[in-house]
Amino acid sequence: MELCGMRLLFASDEAISKNTSNIMNLTNITSIKALLSSHGLTLKKNLGQNFLINEHILEKIVATADIKPDDTILEIGAGIGTLTCKLAEKTSNVIAVEKDFTLIPLLRETLKEKQLQERVIILENDALRIDPPNTSYKIVANIPYLITSPLINHFLKDVTLRHSKGDIMPARPPLLMTLMVQKEVAEKITAREGKLNMLALNIQTFSDVKMLFHVKAGNFYPQPKVDSAVIQIKPLALPRVTCDLLNYFKIISAGFQSKRKNLANALSHNLSIPKETTENWIRSCQINPGARAETLTFQEWEKLTLYTSTRPASKE
Question: Would you say residue 16 has pLDDT above 80?
Fold first, then answer.
């Protein structure tokens, strides 16, 4: 079976051991080691393979994800199936994405052992290369931290921008995203106006975000060097601004490229606009040219963008 042109594997594709008397404990380090060893596997640091081993936190993630029996759930980085099994207990429409092909047989075995194989479709692919499902869906995932920003943008910002540029594929952001991410990154994503950053603007232009709870590093195997946090992202029906989005993000990017410069100097330098022209542009939008980029609100970035719709923002 294929989804968006990608190879799908039903969990029951291959014959798996029928011995289900010993239900594996996926939150027990000894069990995890034995499971990996039985398949001759070692974990890959470059893929961010750190498995959650706290049952209470797993249950808490699933509870906050607001999963209905008929929901389609897209899980990124299924790994050995720790979270996958919890999701499959709530809905029979789970799409589990796993890039590491060596984990696929183990993932199938886990689902078979827990008698959940008919409720999960395994998608062997890179999450950054797949298109959204053709139906309404939610994302619930303990995502590899190295791809946090590109992954969220892929399913939120990128699908909207593609649609705004006339892509025939409709914009299909998820109904809700419940994600485990690095704590420091979670704090950046959930930053409020007055202390915004490029990542927060990329995400919050299209969504409401909130921090749910923190998770200590000791709740994972292998234990990472940093703490984590669970966040929730709820996409908006329409972007927070009404201006041209490509120009909007071009201006924001220019504002943040030079961290030590004030807004006028950053925009002048990065957009190749004379300093006096830049200052007049900013003042015309009732913004202080000496302000720092992180202090601007969404509406102020929108004003700067709308101003350029009738006046050139940069030299050719």
Answer: no
